[in-house]
UniProtKB/TrEMBL annotation, chains A, B:
Heterodimer of SbcC and SbcD. Belongs to the SbcD family. Residues 1-184 form the Calcineurin-like phosphoesterase domain. SbcCD cleaves DNA hairpin structures. These structures can inhibit DNA replication and are intermediates in certain DNA recombination reactions. The complex acts as a 3'->5' double strand exonuclease that can open hairpins. It also has a 5' single-strand endonuclease activity. This is Nuclease SbcCD subunit D. Residues 262-355 form the Nuclease SbcCD subunit D C-terminal domain. It comes from Bacillus carboniphilus. The gene is sbcD. Keywords: DNA recombination, DNA replication, Endonuclease, Exonuclease, Hydrolase, Nuclease. The lineage of its organism: Bacteria, Bacillati, Bacillota, Bacilli, Bacillales. Gene3D superfamilies: 3.60.21.10.
Amino acid sequence: MKFIHTADWHLGKLVHGLYMTEDQAYMLEQFIQLVEEEKPDAVVIAGDLYDRSVPPTHAVNLLNDILFKLNVEMKVPVVAISGNHDSAERLSFGSSWYQHHQFYLQGKLEDSFKPVTVGDLNFFLVPYAEPATVKELLEDPSITNHDEAMKAIMGKLEAYINPDEPNIFVGHAFVIGGQTSDSERTLSVGGAECVSSHLFAPFTYTALGHLHNPHALSHPTVHYSGSLLKYSFSEATHKKSVSIVEIDEKGVATRTEKFLKPRRDMREVEGYLDELLDPSFYKKQETDDYLKVSLLDEGALHEPIQKLRHVYPNVLHLERKVDWMDAKKKQVYQTVQQNKMSEVELFEIFYQEMTTATFSDEKKKWLEEIVDEVKKKESVTL
Amino acid sequence: MKFIHTADWHLGKLVHGLYMTEDQAYMLEQFIQLVEEEKPDAVVIAGDLYDRSVPPTHAVNLLNDILFKLNVEMKVPVVAISGNHDSAERLSFGSSWYQHHQFYLQGKLEDSFKPVTVGDLNFFLVPYAEPATVKELLEDPSITNHDEAMKAIMGKLEAYINPDEPNIFVGHAFVIGGQTSDSERTLSVGGAECVSSHLFAPFTYTALGHLHNPHALSHPTVHYSGSLLKYSFSEATHKKSVSIVEIDEKGVATRTEKFLKPRRDMREVEGYLDELLDPSFYKKQETDDYLKVSLLDEGALHEPIQKLRHVYPNVLHLERKVDWMDAKKKQVYQTVQQNKMSEVELFEIFYQEMTTATFSDEKKKWLEEIVDEVKKKESVTL
């Protein structure tokens, strides 16, 4: 048996004011191709299909189209849950109709923890839920955090676990504690959000969503697939993938990562403006990528973002590495407040603020002459 | 063949700040019962299932539950389109899966105008669309208003009409022009919103949504079902119903109205406050109804809304029939601006503003004495 584990598509995501819908559609087309090649018995989407409870309509259309291709046209069973970004209610709409096509979409956490069976695999679907929701649903007042909530859910699931069959847990949570680390200690550090990976011991494989890094957790059977795309510059070093999971006859899961190529990568670039604008540099680059640029230049730069975007059209964020203005600012502003100044004095302050060069006596003399000349002309024309 | 025609459920509707969800659920349960009794071959919902493009989740849950009961549990085919209040895209999500259960939900107007067939009936589903949308979709630059748009759509539908079978049009539009009126003239009066009923001549029956009055149009084959409930006081005199439509062997449609009883009626009440608060009056009333109250009293009333709600808890709107303040206001305010006045003078103005009685010399004298007395006490204690 084989299934593909993916999560955190975040359709409708805005990154720095830009909708990622086209990039997502590009990735999902490759995903469809991968499914065609791999011919899995199921596709598992472990939450955060959308980026928000009310996604924009282009995201709604995209999800509808992709799921339709996968499930109706290609007849691949789909198993999905809602994440913390999805609206459980809105995502649930229609799920009763989907089941007929082996599209199992669990939006709301429900009292029934009976698994859905696809081929020989039992999928236990546990959508994201706040501890307070679990507390109310299971009528267990002792639940105060995510770990206790998950423990209580596990207590309900146990009755349905057949140890002779492959049992797959599908969840959306912040799970910590690998094989080597002291998970209890990490858990107490991690806080109320965290769930211990020990809880998933009864399962052949645990397909998680929530953390965007496919290597967020190092555990033999509990895995994050990672997000579909890099969704922030903090993810720039991630290598995004989807997981192909095969369960052999002995009930052992093997996970292989498959890398899809994004339409545009998301990267951080650091350097001097001239350097970045030099063809010998940028011709070796994918200049269409989504970039965060850190400039090392000191002093004033004229319209650096426009110049950069001429070469790198998708600069999303620009920052200056050297805080060159800060030291001088105070001194200058104090001066301004104390005296009423001449044109030349004002220019000197402006010069000092905008450049790192010295406003020499020579420059000063030259400016004084210009100011005098202009003033004379003014008195004539007025 | 028999089907039930309903429309304009407007789930998620707010009326005077109050969600109608419980009232809607109450009506829809009766609707389910009616379907159980009538055993129609299909249920037709002619648009505005929701009241807005992003309905509240309780409305989403209600629609999901009702459609699930009807279509999955009771196995009744459902034919539905989106109205101007629905989001075509959001409502469309999942519709490809629904078809397997004979739940035909047409959210977006599409290039294909092929009917869906349920039993012997051909349903032509035309969701609400702006003329500009139709213009673009059909690539017909001559379309400038709703009538032209519908005419163009009819041109596309024609190819699929089999005159030997019952053809049912399901639409959401402002259709005018009955059998007796000069519809062309009415149309020119009605403006760009209006569609002539003549256009629907090829159909055995036209099931419309949009106008909330089931008698908005008087035509032998073109009908509004009206809305599920009264949704504003302008609808207080409507008698809401759903339509049972039977098509006989000769292909002739007969429509019967079925009246469902709302949890609370929506009514207008007019009278004097004392009269409305008199048990001999209100004991004959359904005091729980949603009410617009018009008071005939002149003069000031102390907390009339609180008093009314004590008897009629669901007063949604209160207005005074007599504009008793208006005439005096001007005069009084002018006086206030002109002089600095004594306590007694100020009270006189207040008295005149709040009552219809005369501020007699006797009253004036009495007040002067009180003011003097208070002032004396003040000077002692200060």
